[in-house]
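Notebook entry, cofactor series.
This is the third protein in the set we're modelling with a bound small molecule. For this one the ligand is pyridoxal-5'-phosphate. I'm keeping the input format identical across the series so the outputs can be compared line by line later. Sequence and SMILES below, as received.
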Amino acid sequence: METLGTETAFEVLAKAKALEKQGKDVVHLEIGEPDFDTPKNIKEAAVKALNAGYTHYGPSAGIPELRETIAQYVSKTRGIKADSDEVVVTPGAKPIMFFSILALVNPGEEVLYPNPGFPIYESVVNLVGAKPIPIPLKEENDFRLDPEYVKEKITKKTKMIILNSPENPTGGVLTRDDLKAIADCIADRDDVFVLSDEIYSRIIYEGTHESIASLPGMKEKTILLDGFSKTYAMTGWRLGYGVMRKDLAQKVAQLQTNSNSCTCTFTQMAGIEALKGSQAEPERMDAEFKKRREVIVSGLNNIEGVTCKKPRGAFYVFPNIAGTGMDCRKLGDHLLYNAGVAVLPGTSFGKYGEGYLRLSFANSVENIKKALERISKAVKKR
Ligand SMILES: Cc1ncc(COP(=O)(O)O)c(C=O)c1O
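Returned structure with ligand:
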């Protein structure tokens, strides 16, 4: 257990809540979840499912109708041919990380992962006794990974490469050429898998989402992770999935049998409505995120010592705070305790996050403006 990491976002949230309990006003820009409510048609589908008796155990891999709907959705959005027996439905997308690493990675093997990146990758790789090999994401490269660096780091022990595009926390988006170059690195290696975290695939501001699974020969090597949390504002419902080759899907479903048994059945029925029903609400949310992105990026660039690139996807900004002369943890604490703004230090996402903060813009324009004013004053006052 000593090797298990965590997500600092939940710790900062706890500190912020403690301040609020003392009567302090805090603007929350630390947690990565849409502030919107789940669309009504999806909620109604869940109520209908409850009343129709979807209150029992279901198959470990997911309800067949949802697996089929996901297979069709993924086939259409990624331009691949996915079958329903290649889909495993899980409570949130996170278990796909946990299960696929547990299923595939042996002690002593190596896993390449983006850094700064979602902290759970490194945590689970450590837990299984494997070696996490960070791939630094650099601002000068728009926070896209460098395929040449990936190539250099691949060894006989490499078992998995983790990709995340659009990326949390940087908003970086991998291009088709990036993905081709990565696929080339493992073209002759059938023993290396790619865990492709595409949870933000629908929240993209420039260009289109590309999946490595759609490249020749890559579908069989890819575990595609996606879910409902971000696109449909369904974080609390816990509904996600993985698409992977059938033999692996069977093993991942078996891990589910050994842990959760199955995913909540009435939420799965609501998932069918999410994918098949009107997409007007997620589109409205995306348009709103786009507006907020403009506000937060230009606001941050007006603050002394801070520069901020426009994220190409997801709902986070990753401003460079080197000019403030403070390290990211100190600045994060300063903003929380002296300005009432909760943000995350870049190092919550790994050592290459030093010199940055992560702010979520899944909050109203009004709150974002309030936070920007407070940050500006607090940075000046130090
Ligand atoms: C990159 C990334 N992958 C996966 C997840 C987990 O999604 P879920 O809530 O569906 O488990 C998150 C949530 O923050 C994320 O940022």
